Predict the 3D structure of the following.
Amino acid sequence: MSTDYRAALQAIPRLRAILFSSALVAICSVGGSAFAASPTPPPARPDIVMSVKNATAQKLAIDARNAYRGGNAGLALTLLRRAANAAPKDGWVQLMLGRVLLQTGSPMPAELQLRQARENGVPDAFVLPALFDAMVARHDEIKLLNEFPAPAANAKDVASADILRARAMAMLSLGRTEDAAAEMDRSLSVSRNARSLLARAAIAAKQNNLSLENNLTDEALKLAPKDGPVMVAKLRILVRQDNDIAALALSEQVLKALPNDLETRAIRIDIFLKQNQEEKAKGELNILTAKAPKSAFVPFYNALFLARANNPTDAWKIIGLLLPDFTNNNPAYAVPVSKMAVNSGHVETAIAILARALAKSPDRTDVRTTFASVRLRQGDPDAALKLMEPVKNSADPLVLDMLGNIDLEAGHNHDALEKLTRAHGARPKDGEITFHLVLALDASANRNAAKDLLKSLLAGGGYFDDLQMARQLEKSWH
């Protein structure tokens, strides 16, 4: 896999989960610029662009800022690299270049630029937040913890709060969730700002305290209602709640503030695909491709469209180039990738993908249920049931769907019908769950109801994973 892909995979959406640096928060508060001062600046902080002394470099930096604000991150990077050549010792140029590299998914070169900026005299208040994010994105958590020890117990300055936040995010990335919470709570006691609230919200999510996550995110949104990363955090919550209308509306606001944000663009693609609005999804992919042609999201979604068009072999050829980094760094994408693997005959690869994703994110119901479905497909209902044991009492429709399928496989038709009816009631537009209910109705000797439901499902024209099987079943009933 190329370095560009690996860097993008490490940074997106990981950077969202660990929070963005002050530079990225500033993007929203100053109209989309990675060049403005931190959102919580001390008095008389200089304008970064105007701090560049070399006239040629300053002009290029101004043009880069304008390009970035206009949504052309690629041009901004080109101009900043030219500015760096014109003024190779100017730390402010290096700071700008590092920030934009980080925002566009290249944490390794971003870290190099940020460290050079620090060496060339840019104050830590400007450099460290972005540097911390780059280090965590690169999995340099241990290095961060060693290089930046915890401040003294009586430290109450903003820099100490930033260091504590960075340490918390490093601990979270290392799986030390409770340590991260303690470190972040200490940071919040010093400075309770939007960035810090989002960091604590990310930890709350890992603790499976979704109520606290939502409350902290809402508090951050009140403090910074037009802040891009805050809006993205709220967007993720809306997606998880299946609130597509609100999510699409908020995503438009996010993209006004962060026109280059790849995660938000990917979220819009996912929502449109879920709604079976394929042309809108392809339109979003075209925009994403134009803005970030080297992003790993581009080949992933191209493969996904091929899979939906019943071309699993070609889809897998594309996905194979992204593994294993793509699913390792993005557990949410383990589900569609594993399904592509199964459909192209690579079942063991699918199992490996899902096992890693579940070990990393045991709270992800979609990963757990997909893993169980693969085991069920292998004819091992006991293994599927074991996977579902931790969530067997959940009312989550995905869990009910999977447990219903296991009952169906075991011949417990009455139990299967009860669970699948509940799952369908919670998610009536989910084609997969609807088809499973069709199978349960048929197994329960209710063929007419099964036929009617299947006819309605296929008349909707939407895509779901078992679409081909559903069509075959309909033909067999004629």
The radius of gyration is 24 Å.
